[in-house]
Specification:
single chain; 302 residues; alpha/beta; six-stranded mixed β-sheet; 13 strands; binds adenosine-5'-triphosphate; ABC_transporter-like_CS; ABC_transporter_ATP-binding; ATP-binding; transport; antibiotic resistance
Length: 302
């Protein structure tokens, strides 16, 4: 069942159209990703969903509510992750949670919430002394303090090291498994692929596709990539002319060939015929980043 419905959303800043006719639905209990490059309109879209911005066109329903008209009621149903800079410098973790709990009619027990998020021993720690990953956990706690049905998490793992990022992902799954619908804004492919049940790809204000990560990748119809380092001069046109090959490009010392069918065999036979030995040869299946290139014609640069 859809808990969020966005239909033909349009949002302009002066003449700039930031969101241009975007429609999607978020099902109850899923992690729904909004993925796109910087400036694609992701934050503007979720700010309209949160009721923080007035759309210039289209309709939005969140748990049956109109986010602008029913803002007060929405606050108890939709939890928004706080940006780090919004917390005063010297506030302690427990004080911050206590303060935000006081904004809600029926808040969660914040001590229990801290325990659940692995911050049980940090209640007295000044917020500024936390690590990046711990700060993100506090921001998740603040999003959940009002016992919302939906949590919106925006660029949750930006700036975190890989381990802290993985820990945060596990936490987001835990939030989903506790029954909260999660809307996750991200420009990290790996995060979207690993975490999202479904996602909306947004590029330049327009919706490119909505599907599961596997569904988006399957649109590539079995595209593969072969990567190697030629140990002798190689004319890439030889590879590009093979029927299995769609593209052959140099990436520094490496050659990257994409194509379909028995690509690996076609490439290695061609190299053997031309007396070129391929070092560090690897074959890779297409991923979400390839799907993005396929759908938009350009790479989502991180
Ligand atoms: N308050 C504003 N006033 C004017 N233009 C804005 C404003 N906020 C965003 N924009 C512009 O609208 C477009 C969409 O911005 P938005 O922040 O929604 O994108 P985003 O996909 O969230 O990007 P990022 O990942 O960089 O946050 C961008 O071109 C941005 O410069």
């Amino acid at each position: 069942m859809a808990i969020i419905e966005v239909v033909d959303l349009v949002k302009r800043y002066d003449r700039k159209v930031a969101v241009d006719g975007v429609s999607f639905t978020v099902d109850e209990g899923e992690i729904f990703g909004i993925l796109g490059p910087n400036g694609a309109g992701k934050t503007t879209t979720v700010e309209c969903v949160e009721g923080l911005r007035s759309p210039d066109g289209g309709t939005i329903r969140v748990d049956g509510l109109d986010p602008r008209r029913d803002r007060a009621e929405l606050r108890s149903r939709l939890g928004v992750q706080l940006q780090q800079s919004e917390l005063p410098d010297h506030i302690r973790v427990g004080e911050a949670l206590d303060l935000y709990a006081s904004f809600h009619r029926d808040p969660a027990d914040w001590r229990e919430l801290l325990d659940r998020l692995g911050l049980g021993d940090r209640a007295k720690t000044p917020y500024r002394k936390l690590s990046g990953g711990q700060k993100q956990r506090v921001s998740i706690a603040l999003a959940l303090i009002g016992k919302p049905r939906i949590a919106v998490l925006d660029e949750l793992t930006t700036g975190l090291d890989p381990q802290a990022r993985r820990d945060t992902w596990a936490l987001v799954e835990q939030v989903r498994d506790s029954g909260v619908t999660v809307v996750l804004v991200t420009h990290f492919m790996e995060e979207a692929e690993r975490l999202c049940d479904r996602l909306a790809l947004i590029d330049a204000g327009k919706l490119v596709a909505v599907d599961s990560p596997a569904g988006l990748v399957s649109r590539l119809d079995g595209e593969q990539r072969v990567r190697f380092r030629p140990t002798a001069p190689l004319d890439l046109a030889l590879l590009a002319d093979l029927p299995e090959v769609e593209s052959a490009e140099r990436h520094g010392p490496q050659v990257v060939v994409t194509g379909k069918g028995n690509l690996l065999h076609a490439v290695t036979s061609c190299l053997a015929r031309n007396h070129v030995v391929a070092a560090d040869l690897r074959i890779e299946q297409a991923g979400l980043d390839d799907a993005f290139i396929h759908l938009t014609g350009r790479a989502l640069t991180e």
